[in-house]
Amino acid sequence: MPSARSSPLRRSRGPVSLRFVNRSHAAELDRVPAPALVIVAVLSVQLGAAVAKSLFDDLTPNGVVALRLVFGGIVLGLLFRPRIRNRPRAELRLAVAFGLVLVAMNLCFFQALDRIPLGIAVTLEFIGPLGVALIGSRRASDFLWVAMAASGIALLAPGIGEGLDAAGVAFALAAGVLWGAYILLGVRVGKAFAGPTGLVLAMGVGACVALPLGVASAGSSLLDPALLAAGFGVAMLSSAVPWSLELEALRRLPTHVFGVLMSLEPAIGALVGFVVLGERLGIRAVTAISLVVAASAGAARGARTAPAPPDV
Fold this sequence. Notes:
The protein is an all-alpha fold. Helix content is 75%, strand content 0%. The protein has one domain. It is globular and about 50 Å long.
């Protein structure tokens, strides 16, 4: 998952060898309509979240976060081999801050996912990109999107503490705030580092923080080959696959179109939660999700930067 940022990856370029490989992949992706690439990327992120949730009984949420960030960091590190020698300290501090926000966002979202349905967790988390999309806006129509999103969140309020776990809601909202910080920091990281170097360094920082927490909660389960393979699958579904597809889509789509398509994420999350996890939502929750999707899409149409999912 994330979704409004000026994507730090939008202009990313990898090493020469990787760019050569990407040309052959891009030739195949060129045959696929760009909107379809975005939808598949969002679907991949939500499938990754559903698989992650299915592992919580064995690995705990913190254990799954650890595997997701460690495997994601290893894959990105091997692909891009970032160089940190002779980097200004200010840039390294920025990458560290980005990594800390990244790991905190993942930890909060997975704790939310352990307590509330996937579709509702993603909907509440969407306050982050929606807020960033509206920052500094002067358009009167944006008050409509704020009111619409607030109405959607308000519809979920009566269920908090009854059918909807209060701690899960709090974690999802915290993840949303962190998602907003991730977007804003991502813009600065994209300007400070060439290509995906800043993201790779942030993933390394996140993995170093998440691993001890994962070991403390999941223990020896992290060494189970089957669970390790599942954790690797979560990392690929949530990071590598959507990241590649989004890069190609951003190359071909106007920013506002990309943003509108990304706004479908809460609805797709609810659908995946129903199909994969059997999570049924009542009419109130479905209406709330619809309002937030509509508000996000409306805000994205006028945003100058594209929303970004927290794919990593």
